[in-house]
């Protein structure tokens, strides 16, 4: 059982410039959401980050709010929080899969997101995972966002090896098409 495993946790990154996080939470299960937020805020503060909070109706709206904020606001990273507890219908699968997929796709586009949306079988599992003194999944999601912000800042401005062709290859390709030109 994973709850009894010991896991390695990376130390929080250090920042030269302030970090702004947006915590987006679906407070459908208010007590669980409040614990997730408390854990996320504590980790953000520990790293010296400022964390704003917005609430949305449910887990499916969390990625939409993050996508809007990524386009229209000035945040370095995002923390997605909420809880989905399995019920009697397949709606659980839809909510879990679609919210997770949307968050992953934004991450692949370079948005720095820590995913702390709990997907559990029952309330006791959620309570243990959300508890800041327990598994602290809200804090873990904030830490993940902070690590991605640190990587983003580390790689910002680099033009070699991140989606760009080396100069020699660009010249060869341009020369093949139109004669010897520089790309």
**What series of H and E elements makes up the topology?**
EHEHEHEHHH
Number of strands: 4
- Into which percentage range does the β-strand content fall? 15-25%
Structural class: alpha/beta
Radius of gyration in whole Å, from Cα?
20 Å
**What is the percent of helical residues?**
40-55%
Shape: globular
The largest pleated sheet is described as: 4 strands, parallel
Distance between the termini: 55 Å
Which stretches are poorly predicted, pLDDT < 50 over at least 5 residues? 178-183
Could you tell me the mean pLDDT? Answer: 90
Structure annotation, total helices? 6
Biggest sheet: strands side by side, in what order? 2-1-3-4
What would you note in describing this structure?
Helices cover 47% and strands 16% of the residues. Helix 3 (91-108) links the parallel strand 3 (77-85) and strand 4 (113-120). Helix 1 (30-46) runs parallel beside helix 4, helix 1 (30-46) crosses helix 5 and helix 2 packs parallel to helix 3 (91-108). The protein has six helices and four strands; from the N terminus they run E-H-E-H-E-H-E-H-H-H. It has a four-stranded parallel sheet with strand order 2-1-3-4, sandwiched between helices. It has helices at residues 30-46, 61-72, 91-108, 123-130, 137-155, 167-178; strands at residues 20-25, 50-55, 77-85, 113-120. It is of the alpha/beta class and 183 residues long. The longest helix is centred in the C-terminal third of the chain and has 19 residues, at 137-155.
